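User: Here's a structure from my thesis project, written as structure tokens. My advisor, Dr. K., wants to see whether a designed sequence matches the one we expressed. Can you design one independently, without my sequence as a hint?
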């Protein structure tokens, strides 16, 4: 029996993760000013993950004289 194509691990695949690890959430909250040292690490609030989309550059047509 073979593995379905959707389950195969593709090399170099870099998907946008929508779940952060606890350490990553704490670092992001520190940057936003929502975290102070000594706060509990359990029951952290959700942190929004920004997905960055690159815009395509428009091709500039050269004017011929």
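Assistant: Designed independently from the structure alone:
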């Amino acid at each position: 029996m073979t593995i379905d194509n959707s389950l195969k691990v593709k090399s170099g695949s870099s998907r946008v993760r929508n779940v952060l690890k606890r350490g990553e959430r704490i670092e992001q909250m520190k940057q936003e000013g929502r975290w102070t040292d000594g706060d509990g690490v359990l029951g952290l609030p959700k942190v929004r993950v920004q997905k960055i989309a690159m815009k395509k550059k428009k091709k500039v047509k050269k004017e011929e004289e």
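When you compare it with your expressed construct, this may help: The mean pLDDT is 80.
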